[in-house]
Design brief:
Layout lengths: L2 H14 L2 H12 L6 H13 L3 H14 L4 H13 L3 H14 L4 H14 L2 H14 L4 H13 L3 H10 L6 H11 L3 H13 L5 H13 L17 E4 L8 H13 L10 E6 L10 H20 L6 H4 L5 E19 L6 E8 L11 E4 L17 E4 L5 E6 L3 E4 L8 E10 L2
Antiparallel strand pairs: 1-7, 2-3, 3-8, 3-9, 4-7, 4-9, 5-6, 5-8
Helix pairs in contact: 2-3, 3-4, 4-5, 5-6, 5-7, 6-7, 7-8, 8-9, 9-10, 10-11, 11-12, 11-13
The structure holds fe (ii) ion (FE2).
Length: 425
């Protein structure tokens, strides 16, 4: 098999999620060629996707030992650190990649994404623009510029960039959101119809469709989850006997001690949110929580299996569990938001003020948020729901449903673990 065929084979296995087969095949070929960088890299990528992050890191480091200017290995290490939420380490390795190969487009773009997560928007923009200058058709960099302009409410400009990144990730859904903010209803409904006819299902389209059809008093034909308030699941893992108090204490200790950066989260008042995916950190307590959440998510799916909604019917075949923690101090709160890249989302509560009064610190759900336009004459009164929370509670809900936290008054901290199942697009 020549190199071209080999690359095509591994790409196919990767796209099918056959990571184990990738490793088996690469290991057989390594017997004749034990120093082959490409084969080692293939194994590392597969191991990473199997959740064996530390193994993947070791392989990339060995590749660097064999070939000190291996910029691909540096870039891959940076990608792992970025996903683990070790943002400063990721920046260091992306910079090393660019020192060796200044035109490594993925590293330039990913460095921009990392700076955006850190909260340095100017640096992020600089790197995205650099990537676009090197290649005006770089869809990722165009998409990221679109996201930056959208976050700054420059929707016209954002649409231009989303046009250039069509087909990538949820670019068109973001374009739909920009049309909505701009009040361009004709373009909005035309694009909504087109996305629906293409069976493109995601929480952002669902949330926009629900909001617009409420405001315009028309039927919501988008089938993701038309009545998301009916799909909130709430239970307590302590009461169910799935965990005990020691588990909560150990998890709190783990969160206090793990090496993870904080992410810029403009919606969070008097609080902190972890960066990256905490489930990628090799910690037994966090992995135990990951297992419990996975089982709960399967339970959630079964609970609604009879319902004729895309959320259940088109449940993603391949997805990643993404997890992060959110903690708040006195007067802390989290403004309403949805999880655009999720499918089903949830939260698990580790600390709640003991002296909490009424609804303080509770999670609320609503069909309105993100300052979406509400119609001028008679603003529509959106439904909402509040869940009373205590330590050990777990709440699951469609990622399309707006939610936020009622401000806490207590001096005691509130801490939760938030998660998504995020489909592989
Ligand atoms: Fe959330």
């Amino acid at each position: 098999m020549n190199n071209k065929d080999l690359i095509a084979l591994f790409e196919k296995l990767y796209s099918l999620g056959n990571y184990k087969e990738m490793i088996d095949k690469a290991e057989v070929l390594l017997k004749d060629n034990p120093e082959n960088y490409f084969l080692w890299n293939t194994i590392a990528v597969a191991e990473k996707n199997l959740g064996n992050t530390e193994k993947a890191i070791q392989i990339h480091e060995d590749n660097i030992k064999r070939e000190k200017n291996n910029f691909v290995a540096y870039g891959n290490l940076a990608n792992i650190y970025k996903v683990q939420g070790k943002l400063n380490k990721a920046v260091k390795y992306y910079e090393k990649t660019l020192e060796i190969n200044p035109s490594a487009a993925d590293a330039i773009n990913n460095l921009g994404v990392t700076y955006e997560e850190i909260g340095d928007t100017n640096k992020a923009k600089k790197y995205f623009e650099k990537a676009v200058k090197l290649n005006p058709n770089n869809r990722s960099a165009n998409y990221n510029l679109g996201n930056l302009y959208r976050s700054s409410s420059l929707y016209d400009k954002a649409i231009d960039y989303y046009q250039r990144s069509k087909g990538l990730d949820i670019s068109e859904s973001h374009m739909l959101e920009c049309y909505y903010y701009l009040g361009m209803k004709e373009e909005f409904y035309k694009l909504l119809k087109s996305l629906t006819s293409k069976n493109e299902y995601n929480p952002l389209i669902a949330c926009l469709s629900s909001h617009a059809t409420c405001v315009d008093d028309i039927e919501d034909d988008y089938p993701f989850c038309p009545n998301p308030l009916n799909y909130i699941y709430h239970s307590n893992l302590l009461d169910e006997g799935l965990i005990d108090e020691n588990f909560i204490d150990s998890l709190n200790n783990s969160i206090d001690t793990i090496e993870v950066s904080l992410k810029k989260q403009p919606l969070l008042i008097n609080g902190r949110q972890s960066a990256g995916n905490v489930f990628n950190i090799n910690n037994p307590i966090i992995q135990k929580l990951n297992n419990i959440i996975s089982k709960k998510i399967e339970f959630y799916k079964k609970l609604f299996v009879e319902d004729n909604i895309a959320l259940i019917k088109y449940w993603p075949e391949r997805y990643t569990n993404l997890g992060w923690f959110v903690e708040m101090d006195e007067e802390g709160s989290l403004k309403t938001h949805i999880h655009k890249r999720g499918w089903v989302s949830g939260s698990f509560y580790l600390k709640m003020p003991k002296d909490k009064k009424k609804d303080e610190g509770n999670i609320f759900f609503t069909l309105d948020g993100a300052d979406y336009p509400k119609g001028k004459k008679e603003p529509y009164q959106f439904e909402n729901k509040i869940i009373d929370l205590k330590i050990g509670d777990i709440v699951l809900f469609p990622s399309s449903l707006f939610h936020g936290t009622i401000p806490i008054k207590s001096k005691e901290q509130r801490r939760c673990f938030a998660f998504d199942i995020s489909p592989h697009i």
